[in-house]
Amino acid sequence: MVRAPCCDEIGLKKGPWTLEEDQILISYIQKYGHANWRALPKKAGLLRCGKSCRLRWVNYLRPDIKRGNFTLEEEETIIKLHEMLGNRWSAIAAKLPGRTDNELKNVWHTHLKKRLKQYQIKPVTKQNPKSKPKIKCESSDNISTIQSEPGNSSSIPGQTPMWPQPSSSEVSSITDVTTATSDREVNNKAMKAENMEYSWEYFPEIDESFWSDALSSDNSSAPVNFGGVSEEFQSQVPSSSIDHVMEPDYGYSQNLDDAMEFWYNLFIKAGGEQELITEF
DNA sequence: AATGGGGCCAACCGCTCCGTG
DNA sequence: GCACGGAGCGGTTGGCCCCAT
């Protein structure tokens, strides 16, 4: 069976919504809800496809939409969540009440990506000149060089690994596509295998515990930890590996730029860099 | 005043996911 | 287990606006 056309249906309108259309959509949804987007435009008397109506409602007309510029805290939250979740904008939007996935996507592409790029290019200025040279991780060549060192089981030669490396059987069970029972599982396993190939030591999935919860603090007199990593995480990082990137207390800076630079460098150094850097 | 370039954002497109029969 | 269709998601784009020249 051929899928029914959506916006290609003859007579359906495309492009910007008029005030009148908005009002029709709002009043219809207020009365009857939006259980069936496909049927909605016909019932409401709109010459739009259901998809277009849904998009208009979700991204613009919903009463709980927050308007106006993003606050610093919101931007930091977006960056933080993007580190954890990637381009899963709907999941990120779910953590930011009143903001839509579309809006987050836009602000990411127009502001935040550039800002992160700037931090990646910017040289580390707080480096201790007496410390070990900073590991370069800007290219996969450097990573493969480190990985290929015989007997090297740590992310930084001569240092204790931050996380235990999985056994070969564990790796195999995660990545062996021949054991997959569906296409989806094949894809998932292939993606995991690809990610492992890029990481120094199978960098574990980042969860909330990585980050400090100071972002949610409403004590304005206390030092604000913009995007700082949690103490739990910091305790896992050998102090020497922090020192030669930046002093640890920059994770608790009131200066947004310094704090961002701190955790971003730390995250890169810990092996979480590949996806971000190749994205730019 | 004209124009061209860049930023921004609403909306579209195409794909995947998921519920249902 | 499979096919189908609606909903949802992420990537992309068209067009408006602003600013510099």
Please give a handful of descriptors for the protein shown.
13 helices, disordered N terminus, transcription cis-regulatory region binding, Myb_TF_plants, Arc Repressor Mutant, subunit A, Myb_dom, DNA-binding, Homeodomain-like_sf
Structural description of this entry:
The structure is a single chain. The longest helix is centred in the middle third of the chain and has 21 residues, at 101-121. The protein has helices at 19-32, 40-44, 50-61, 72-85, 89-94, 101-121, 140-147, 168-175, 183-198, 231-236, 239-243, 256-272, 274-279. With 280 residues, the protein is mainly alpha-helical. Among the domains are: 1-63, Arc Repressor Mutant, subunit A, CATH 1.10.10; 72-121, Orthogonal Bundle (Arc Repressor Mutant, subunit A), CATH 1.10.10.60; 164-197, no CATH class. The protein binds a DNA duplex (21 and 21 nucleotides) through residues 1, 3-4, 6-7, 14-17, 36-38, 50-52, 54-56, 58-60, 87-90, 101-103, 105-107, 109-110, 184. Keywords: DNA-binding, Nucleus, Repeat, Transcription, Transcription regulation. Its main location: nucleus. GO terms for molecular function: transcription cis-regulatory region binding.
Give the CA-based shape.
elongated
CATH superfamily of the domain at 1-63: Homeodomain-like
Helix content: 40-55%
User: CATH topology of the domain at 1-63, anyone?
Assistant: Arc Repressor Mutant, subunit A
Q: What is the first-to-last residue Cα distance?
A: 42 Å
Kindly name the structural category. Answer: mainly alpha
As a percent range, the share of strand residues is under 5%
- Number of β-strand runs: 0
The major sheet is characterized as: none
- Second CATH tier, the architecture of the domain at 1-63: Orthogonal Bundle
Rg, alpha carbons: 24 Å
Rounded mean pLDDT score: 55
Low-pLDDT stretches? 1-5, 121-263, 270-280
Level-1 CATH class name of the domain at 1-63: Mainly Alpha
Give me the number of helical elements: 13
Q: What string, H for helix and E for strand, traces the elements in order? A: HHHHHHHHHHHHH
GO molecular function, one term: transcription cis-regulatory region binding
Biased composition (Polar residues): 143-158, 165-179
Subunit structure: Can form complexes with MYC2, MYC3 or MYC4.
Domain HTH myb-type: 9-61, 62-116
